């Protein structure tokens, strides 16, 4: 592949960034910004590689990501605001940090996503879990050696393209979900709450040492923090306040003094006011399981939010895709503060042609000011998703 010429795309990237920034100030740009969350695994599929190819070969990983950037800018044409590549290991950080068995895709199972074999099966396993020292931990050191190798590979092939990376676990409850499995996690919260808090305190301290180690070796002093916390969305409000809020809030207060974001593929509509008022979020990534009307009610004018369109509609028909787009834009877009996207990551298997149609239709319907006459399915839309009562 020819070296990636960043300068060629700077004008387009800046135009996209202005549109997103305007919406982020709760104003209306020319149209609703669109940023589709597609990543390396999706690119690998459409470019003819398996997950085994992608995760086990740094050259393939780099090639796929760079080609994916060009694909988005030239063909998909969403509002990409950042050009860069990253070392992508999948969701296995907890496995690296806590020395779990990790299963990677291979020739026998080329489409198996990397996954962690849970290591916490008894209460004694919680006591045995050690907070790592990043300076001496073999797995952490190996990760950063691999990151440096990836950086050199990117520089040799694509010059000054930015390279991201940094080993970090999920916040305590979602990290625990990886280490013990969701079923054991949720049941132990009721059966063994003290032990679960003991585990969460260890995971909080681990999050902190990893973050501070990254700042130490890079010289970064970021005051922004984004958390990915899918497991937390299945708790009641009471359980969320008890087992999640104190830990996440301390992390935001420590590392997110300037900017705070939250990704939850699971439910957040039942705790949207808590997320807004307790965390004082700047940005939220909203999954498909949420009622966009409730999210808009709580976040409008306070929290910029993105997502919620159900990617499964892209596997069904254009009609269902159009309804998802119109639902999100009708209820979330007026007044700015909303970025259109599918809820969660757009998974491999979604046809690229449908993804392109989704972007094109969202651009058409999402012109500001939002006008109901631009909605093809308004009657059906209001039947399925009537406005909430004040």
Description of the molecule:
The protein has helices spanning 10-24, 40-46, 51-56, 58-76, 93-97, 123-128, 138-158, 172-180, 182-191, 193-218, 237-243, 245-255, 272-277, 292-299, 318-332, 352-365, 378-384, and strands at residues 85-86, 101-103, 115-117, 163-164, 224-228, 259-264, 283-286, 304-307, 338-339. It has 390 residues and is an alpha/beta fold. The strands form 3 sheets. The protein has a 5-stranded parallel beta sheet, with helices on both faces. It is globular. The termini are far apart. The mean pLDDT is 95.
Supply the number of helical segments: 17
In spatial order, strands of the major sheet run 5-6-7-8-9
Average pLDDT for all residues: 95
What is the CA-atom radius of gyration, in angstroms? 21 Å
- Report the principal-axis shape: globular
Number of strands: 9
In which range does the helix fraction lie? Answer: 40-55%
Provide the low-confidence segments as ranges.
none
Distance between the termini: 55 Å
Biggest β-sheet description: 5 strands, parallel
Helix-strand makeup class: alpha/beta
Spell out the helices and strands N to C: HHHHEHEEHHEHHHEHHEHEHEHEHH
Beta-strand percentage?
5-15%
């Amino acid at each position: 592949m020819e070296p990636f010429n960043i300068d060629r795309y700077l004008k387009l990237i800046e135009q996209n960034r202005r549109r997103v920034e305007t919406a982020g100030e709760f104003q209306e740009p020319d149209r609703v910004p669109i940023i589709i969350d597609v990543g390396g695994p999706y690119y690998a599929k459409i470019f003819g590689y398996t997950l085994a190819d992608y995760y086990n070969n740094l050259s393939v990983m780099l090639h796929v990501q760079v080609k994916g950037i060009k694909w988005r800018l030239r063909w998909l044409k969403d509002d990409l605001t950042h050009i860069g590549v990253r070392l992508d290991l999948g969701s296995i950080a907890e496995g690296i940090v806590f020395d779990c068995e990790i299963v990677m895709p291979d020739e026998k199972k080329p489409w198996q996503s990397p996954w962690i074999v849970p290591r916490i099966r008894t209460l004694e396993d919680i006591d045995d879990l050690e907070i790592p020292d990043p300076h001496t931990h073999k797995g952490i050191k190996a990760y950063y050696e691999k990151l440096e190798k990836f950086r050199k590979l990117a520089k040799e092939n694509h010059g000054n393209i930015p390279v991201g990376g940094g080993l970090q676990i999920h916040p305590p409850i979602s990290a625990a979900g990886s280490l013990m499995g969701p079923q054991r996690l949720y049941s132990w919260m009721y059966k063994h709450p003290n032990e679960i808090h003991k585990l969460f305190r260890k995971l909080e301290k681990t999050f902190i040492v990893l973050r501070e180690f990254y700042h130490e070796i890079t010289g970064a002093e970021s005051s922004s923090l984004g958390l990915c916390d899918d497991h937390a969305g299945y708790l009641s409000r009471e359980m969320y306040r008890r087992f999640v809020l104190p830990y996440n809030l301390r992390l935001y207060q420590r590392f997110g003094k300037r900017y705070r974001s939250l990704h939850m593929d699971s439910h957040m509509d039942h705790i949207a006011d808590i997320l807004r008022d307790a965390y004082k979020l700047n940005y939220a990534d909203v999954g498909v399981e949420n009622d966009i009307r409730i999210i808009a009610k709580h976040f409008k004018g306070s929290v910029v939010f993105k997502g919620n369109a159900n990617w499964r509609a892209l596997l069904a028909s254009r009609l269902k895709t159009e309804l998802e787009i119109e639902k999100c834009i009708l209820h979330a877009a007026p007044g700015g503060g909303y970025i259109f996207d599918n809820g969660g990551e757009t998974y491999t298997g979604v046809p690229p042609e449908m993804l392109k149609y989704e972007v094109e239709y969202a651009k058409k319907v999402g012109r500001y000011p939002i006008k109901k006459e631009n909605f093809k399915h308004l009657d059906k839309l209001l039947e399925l998703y009537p406005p909430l009562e004040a």
